[in-house]
Design brief:
With 332 residues, the chain is an alpha/beta fold. The protein has a domain at 3-178 and 216-239: NAD(P)-binding Rossmann-like Domain (Rossmann fold), CATH 3.40.50.720. The chain is built from eleven helices and 13 strands. It has a seven-stranded parallel sheet with strand order 3-2-1-4-5-6-11, sandwiched between helices. The protein is globular. It starts with a strand and ends with a helix. The model has no long low-confidence stretch (mean pLDDT 98). The structure holds nicotinamide-adenine-dinucleotide (NAD) and 2'deoxy-thymidine-5'-diphospho-alpha-D-glucose.
Length: 332
Amino acid sequence: MSTLLVTGGAGFIGSNFVHHVVEHTDHDVVVLDKLTYAGDRASLAGLPEDRVRLVVGDIADPEVVDGLVGDADAVVHYAAESHNDNSLSDPSPFVHTNLIGTFTLLEAARRHARRFHHISTDEVYGDLELDDPAKFTPETPYNPSSPYSSTKAGSDLLVRAWVRSFGLEATISNCSNNYGPRQHVEKFIPRQITNVIDGVRPRLYGAGENVRDWIHADDHSSAVLRILERGRIGETYLIGADGERNNLEVVQAILRLMGQEADAFDHVADRAGHDLRYAIDATKLREELEWEPTYTDFEAGLAATIDWYRANEAWWRPQKAAAEAKYAAAGH
Ligand code: NAD
Ligand code: DAU
């Protein structure tokens, strides 16, 4: 048994990973989370107190970070500012958390010689044309578009440098778009589900032809655990589940599953610099580490996610008005 330090473990994907670790391993978990607007203690509710401890703090604070990293056997680094639209209105917290925060963790992991796994995104590779047969691979050159994705790209490069220059025992994973329970209502799928619950029409940026490669957060967690256990040091693994859909298809699936007409949505102002298409080739993860996703039916996963938001209004309701106010100010 060992102790994992999970940064950002009160957010959407980090909390999913903490639940996954508790259910599938005998590791203890210490969560380091600043509880920004995106973090919520309630996402860790129901977990055993003798195995999961939450420390509220900033990953860019060396004094907080050093002791926690020293006390852990491995660091799994999820904490980030994660939303592209926010990064367009104010990039500064993205530089602080994604770059300075990652640097601070890496320095502590180097001092204490700790195993490090860095969670990143397919957005570091930029975007693909709609009719391009190519998908992202670990060899695709970095070409990020937004303040969010460029700070994530910078954080990946820091990790690679710490491996090569200082011998840090680190791995990196770049995953596609996640969906599932406990995702903040600012994100595309929960925004539309909670809009429909509120009697508000879904909002589609531009024509809705942008493609995202959807994966259930549970599958992301099982992949990260597999990389932590069996991944080769210094390697990058891409995580995806062949879930390409355009945004119009996703909105229409939500409307259908929630008993609405197929055209009951509105087109709104497009995102500046909006990436067209993401697509992951996860062959390396599947063949080398023998990982397979569990959720292969997107509509079934989406239906379960809709059920979760219907049953857990107390979790998302406190976020909803503030998220919509930000969108109204940005014209979305
Ligand atoms: P999220 O916004 O839901 O959660 C982020 C968490 O990090 C929150 O709990 C927040 O309080 C915490 N945090 C933010 N700044 C912090 C700081 N300075 N110190 C400590 N904690 C801080 O994000 P998410 O969607 O769960 O994404 C988690 C990670 O996964 C990120 O690194 C993101 O880049 C990556 N990722 C996300 C997706 C996706 O589809 N959401 C896909 C691929 C990769
Ligand atoms: O690809 C992985 C990335 O996926 C992660 O790194 C990010 O942290 C995560 O937020 C996500 O980024 P996206 O920008 O793709 O996700 P978002 O949910 O913001 O938007 C998904 C798509 O839906 C995108 O093309 C924009 C569009 N959209 C979004 C919102 C909020 C709409 O059409 N309407 C909306 O109201």
